[in-house]
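User: Can you predict the 3D structure of Mannose-1-phosphate guanylyltransferase? Sequence below.
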Amino acid sequence: MSEHITSGMVLAAGLGTRMRPLTLHTPKPLIKVAGRTMADRALDRLKEAGVTHAVLNISYLGEQIAAHFKNRTDMNIQLSNEDEPLETGGGVQKALSLLKGTAFFVLNGDAVLLNGPTPTLRRMKDFWNAADMDVLLLLLPSAKAIGYSGPGDFTLDNRSIPAFREECKTAPYVFSGVQILAHNTFDNRPRGKWSLREIYQDAITKGRARALVHDGDWLHVGTPEGLEVAEDYFAKLA
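Assistant: Sure. Here are the predicted structure tokens for Mannose-1-phosphate guanylyltransferase:
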């Protein structure tokens, strides 16, 4: 059931510790992959899905992000300033009043999402059903995650219901950092620093979490080595 989702958020407030020394003077979302910043690439995905109102949370070197996006005028971009990074859940909670509608997208700012046969975020909108879902996660097979070498995050059953890896050594799917969240899942949540994992866990417990498997490429660009892999990927496409 497609829903008219017009708001989205890009998480851009992290310290970029694992990307040092590149992030000593440049915030990670402004690091370029094949000539375009990772934050702009995330906003490009939102725009093509019909999102007209985007929010970026900023903290570390946030003035650089603010200056950069003053020059982008093709969509309405607002900034949510954090005195210190609030992690994923706290960051979205602080920006909640800027996110319109009953549901919205959230994308990590340190990955590059490439479309499959259908634009990925449109595919997610078409799958979203507010009657059954509070959370929709975009997963991909761990073996297909470019620049990622971790143990995986989720299992997934044939009803599109995800579950955390928990004690298992590995899981077949990695979370892309791309999601749709129902606005009301933040009701009565605390202010301050906390993780969106709490939202996912609650939705899984209530049977209101679903996941889609990404049918395109996805590049994790959280380290200098990951950036090198991503540059090589795009060089081969040229």
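DSSP finds six helices and 13 strands in the chain. Residues 107 and 178 are 5 Å apart (CA to CA).
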